[in-house]
Specification:
529 residues, 19 helices, 5-stranded mixed β-sheet, alpha+beta, 19 strands
């Protein structure tokens, strides 16, 4: 298909991205796109409504002078590009619009963006769950010293149209004017799902050509085709980027001319992290670490001056920014759990949040983020030795086996015998590590765990839990892990293991039940005929 793609890549450019995609519909069919993808490209995205939303015509949100100036410029730009239609003054057309949602401006990284508040229509739309590809997926296919290739798509959400029957439900108002979107709007949570599903056909085609890449909305990155088992070279990157331009020109998506890395560098920024192939690290950009540290210092100063009370919006912005560093900063979720808990307890009048002792301690840890180089990187391929450990616990005691040879077991202390089984399972891991510490290498080790609690698995993977009791127990385990330089990973059971029903029942409880509480429950009556 290479000659055909080269022929179509020489066609004159289109004025609209959705027109380019529609004109390339035969090539999408040739690369094996599904009938659903072909239908979306040809006719627009379908909005799966669970029910018809009630008629909704609210007033627009007020904007300050700076936001109003940006909004007016953005509207004129979208009107000129053919992404929206102005219905202002047409009373008949406005009366036919079922829902009109207010638009506003958000500023992320000091970059303003127009967003529509689709809270009302979204409540009547079916939820579509999916998983984005991450850098962890990319690390499984990259090779040491690979030359990286990164590129972006321009005007991503404007590549797909909205269907005419859905447009009356997604109209928006701002600055006293009413508009109807013609392309995918920014503000609908369903839009990333639709776009990712369409792009999956293109990503699979590129992977069939030898590219080892992932895609995340408008970001594409990875390694170009290379010799089997050999790292991609600078020449491979140049050839790969030319092939990408040919494929994208033939299939329609617009490549952003000013973004991306296609010079053959072994270090490139992708999905907010620096992928360093030479040193085998995922690194946090220093600028982002400095920003997070500055936000943490501001919160600490404010809380010290207001008896530990902080603004809800400021704390939410900090938590949202800090959690994005999960891949390169290892203890992120562990050091954010108490801060997320603080978001759930707000003052009834002011809406502010009060920080507890643990939240203040975690916030102090974040103030030293950029000054601690060891916390800003994570190896792409861990080189530590690995060991296998089985642990189990019951209401009587706990036991563990290390590498099928060393064994440890004991009865529970009287003050722990009445704890919930999930707390005992986490405690068994901690006590087992302390018992086996003489067998662990001092330089660090990765231990693959086998246990029978799905709740414990969730706590270990997230390094966090909404349960206060589980989080307190995990803090004790975390202190042992840091002291012994141990990283825990889950070793899957080979026999269709599904986990304990008893442990799964505890997934969302905020505190552990005691034995006395369980025994005090009244027995259920048996139904008689």
């Amino acid at each position: 298909m290479g000659d055909a793609l080269q022929k179509h890549a020489q066609l004159p450019p289109f004025s609209h991205p959705y027109a380019a995609l529609q004109a390339a519909l035969p090539r999408w069919q040739e690369i094996g796109a599904s009938t659903w993808v072909l239908d979306v490209i040809a006719h627009g995205i379908p909005i799966p409504c669970a029910s018809t939303p009630p008629r909704h015509h609210p007033r627009g949100y007020p904007l300050n002078a700076e936001d109003a100036e940006f909004m007016a410029a953005q509207l004129e730009q979208d009107l000129a590009a053919g992404y929206i239609k102005d219905e202002t003054g047409d009373t008949v057309a406005i009366a036919e619009l079922h829902c009109i949602s207010p638009a506003f401006i958000v500023r992320n990284s000091h970059k303003p963006r127009k967003v529509v508040d689709y809270t009302h229509p979204k409540a009547h739309v079916d939820v579509r769950k999916f998983k984005y590809e991450t850098l962890n997926d990319l690390s499984q296919v990259l090779r040491p010293d690979d030359s990286l290739l990164v590129w972006d798509i321009k005007d991503t959400y404007h590549h797909l149209l909205l269907r005419e029957e859905d447009q009356p439900f997604l109209a928006f108002t701002t600055l006293g004017r009413v508009f109807v979107p013609l392309t995918m709007p920014f503000g609908m949570s369903l839009v990333p799902y639709m776009w990712t599903k369409v792009m999956r056909a293109l990503v699979q085609f590129l992977q069939a050509l030898g590219f080892r890449i992932i895609s995340y909305v408008d970001d594409f990155g990875g390694a170009p085709p290379a010799e089997p088992g050999e790292p991609a070279t600078v020449a491979d990157t140049a050839r790969g980027y030319q092939l990408v331009r040919v494929v994208f020109s033939a299939l329609g998506p617009w490549i952003h001319p000013d973004k991306g890395v296609h010079t053959g560098s072994t270090s490139a920024q992708l999905l907010g992290h620096v992928v360093d192939r030479t040193n085998g690290l995922y690194r946090q950009p220093v600028a982002r670490a400095d920003k997070i540290q500055a936000l943490a210092k501001q919160l600490l100063r404010f809380s010290a001056a207001h008896q530990r009370w902080v603004r809800f919006c400021a704390l939410r912005v900090f938590c949202g920014t800090a959690v994005s560093t999960t891949l390169s900063v290892v203890p992120v979720r562990f050091c954010l759990r108490s801060l997320f808990n603080a978001l759930g307890y707000r003052n009834g009048r002011s809406g502010d949040c009060r920080l507890g002792d643990q939240a203040v301690a975690d916030l102090r840890w974040w103030t030293g983020l950029s000054s601690t180089g060891l916390t800003l990187a994570r190896p792409i391929w861990p080189e530590s030795p690995t060991m296998l450990m089985d642990t189990d616990a019951s209401c009587l005691g706990w036991g563990a086996v290390l590498n099928h040879s060393a064994m440890a077991r004991a009865h529970h202390a009287p003050d722990r015998a009445a704890l919930h089984i999930n707390l005992l399972e986490i405690g068994a891991i901690r006590l087992a590590l302390l018992s086996f510490r003489q067998f662990l290498p001092p330089a660090g080790v990765i231990i693959h765990l086998k246990f029978d609690s799905m709740v414990v698995l969730g706590v270990l993977q997230a390094q966090s839990s909404p349960s206060v009791a589980l989080m307190n127990e995990y803090r004790l385990l975390r202190a042992v892990l840091v002291g012994l330089k141990v990283e825990l990973r889950h070793a899957s059971r080979p026999d269709g293991f599904r986990g304990s029903r008893r442990s799964s029942h505890y997934a969302r409880r905020s505190s552990a039940r005691t034995k006395a509480t369980r025994c005090a429950r009244a027995p259920r009556r048996r139904r008689t005929r």
